[in-house]
Design goal:
Layout: H1 2-49, H2 71-76, H3 88-91, E1 94-100, E2 105-109, H4 118-131, E3 135-138, E4 141-148, E5 151-158, H5 160-235, H6 239-265, E6 274-277, H7 278-295, E7 299-304, E8 309-312, H8 314-331, E9 337-345, E10 348-356, E11 363-364, H9 389-399, E12 403-408, E13 413-419
Parallel strand pairs: 7-9
Antiparallel strand pairs: 1-2, 1-5, 3-4, 4-5, 6-8, 9-10, 10-13, 11-12, 12-13
Length: about 425
């Protein structure tokens, strides 16, 4: 149980770390991408307002003498992007295509880019106008469509360097995040051992105490039983001796169950796992309960598919059937009905024990597998139950790598299903 708890702790810790890391990475990458597109859109807007050219574009600038600057550009561009520099008009690769209302190209400006042919530029512009989009990405070009009375101007800005930098950022971020996750996993595994070490020790001592106490109880129980038998021989059997022997037997059974459950928790009660006929084992284990159910005025029905085989401990599976049927007989209502079913569904084998009850909480009832849990809050001992039988049943199923669940669909019946 501690190993399972530790695995869940590691899973939750890593899941939380992963979610937080993905959120941080997503926000950071989205922010970078948005800023990159925002800057490009601002450049496109400036180009659109100036007929597809920067104010004071390089080819229109006069030859600068030493110590000259391009202050005229600054004066004309008060709304330029924040990271605008004097070199921006020279660094930006862009081109524009003008089309009439019918979509025919009237002019193409390719003076500020060398990697685009005139035919390609015209095809790009025509595709975009036909799509009806105002702006977006076309390959590695960010475009903007400026619609006028006599036609369209489609302006493109080359974003290849920005996109490449962004891809590198994504790869670096993902790589660093994965490395961080691996390091966190290593640290969580190491520290979880330290965190759970006291819990493991406490659990080990608890199991050892249960085992030792159970063994220690056997001797006084044997003596009490022997003394009661002597008293019956001397003065005859009476109500008190019968009650004493009944309680001694009940306590002896409980201690035996506690020892068995403790060993199962430690993985020592595995037995020999080998293929056996599950159908025959279930039928044989269920046979005595026909008489038991009939004696209590209840009806037991069985539906067992023939020829089913399971790789496991046959003795433990027989004990599982006895525990489930014993529980069903004890806790079913007066004149109740009990059904035992064993079926093959795909690759899974389904063992189901269903019984009617007077009243039970509707929905999942997995709490029934908790140790010493009983639906009767007064803990009436008339049924003879100790509240540990279904805990043993669960341990047996889990030792066979199966799953067990308890469900009440209508509040008037209980269905316990083991899946192997």
């Amino acid at each position: 149980m501690i190993k399972s708890l530790r695995k869940k702790f590691i899973l939750v810790a890593m899941g939380s770390t992963f979610v937080v890391l993905m959120a941080i990475m997503g926000i950071m990458l989205f922010s970078n991408y948005s800023k990159m597109m925002e800057r490009t859109d601002q450049l496109l807007q400036i180009l659109a307002e100036n007929d597809g050219e920067f104010p004071g574009a390089p080819e229109n600038l006069p030859q600068l003498k030493e110590n000259d600057s391009i202050r005229p550009i600054k004066k004309k561009m008060d709304d330029r992007p924040k990271d605008w520099t004097e070199e921006t008009p020279y660094e930006t690769r862009f081109f524009s295509v003008m089309l009439d209302k019918q979509g025919s190209v009237t002019e193409t400006k390719l003076g500020n880019i060398a990697s685009v042919e005139q035919t390609d530029a015209q095809n790009y512009a025509q595709d975009i106008v036909q799509s009806g989009k105002k702006k977006g990405l076309y390959d590695h070009y960010r475009y903007y469509v400026d619609e006028m009375d006599d036609g369209y101007t489609v302006i493109f800005v080359d974003c290849s360097r920005d996109l490449k930098s962004y891809r590198n950022l994504v790869m670096t971020t993902v790589s660093v995040s994965l490395l961080g996750l691996v390091l966190v996993l290593v640290l969580v595994v190491i520290f979880s051992r330290l965190v759970f070490k006291p819990v493991e020790e406490s659990d080990r001592k608890q199991k050892q105490f249960i085992t030792d106490a159970s063994h220690e109880l056997k001797t006084p129980l044997t003596i009490i039983d022997a003394n009661t038998e002597v008293m019956e021989m001397l003065s005859g059997e009476n109500e008190w001796t019968r009650s004493t022997r009944k309680q001694v037997k009940r306590l002896a059974d409980l201690t035996q169950q506690m020892v068995m459950l403790s060993r199962m928790d430690e993985g020592k009660q595995t037995g020999i796992l080998e293929p056996f006929c599950l159908s025959d084992a279930v039928a044989d284990a269920a046979e005595p309960f026909f008489t038991v159910a009939e004696a209590r005025g209840k009806c037991l029905s069985v539906d067992i598919e023939e020829g089913l085989v399971l790789n496991g401990d046959e003795a433990q599976i027989r004990q599982l059937i006895s525990l489930l049927l014993d529980n069903a007989v004890k806790y079913s209502d007066e004149n109740g009905k009990i059904w035992l079913s064993l079926k093959k569904k795909g690759k899974k084998t389904m063992l189901e024990v269903r019984n009617t009850v007077e009243q039970i909480q509707q929905g999942k009832m997995d709490i029934l597998f908790e140790r010493f849990y009983r639906t009767d809050e007064s803990r009436n001992s008339e049924t003879g139950g100790s509240g540990i039988g279904l805990s043993i049943a669960k341990a047996i199923v889990e030792l066979h790598r199966g799953k067990i669940r308890a469900v009440s669909e209508d509040g008037k019946s209980l269905c316990v299903t083991a899946v192997f």
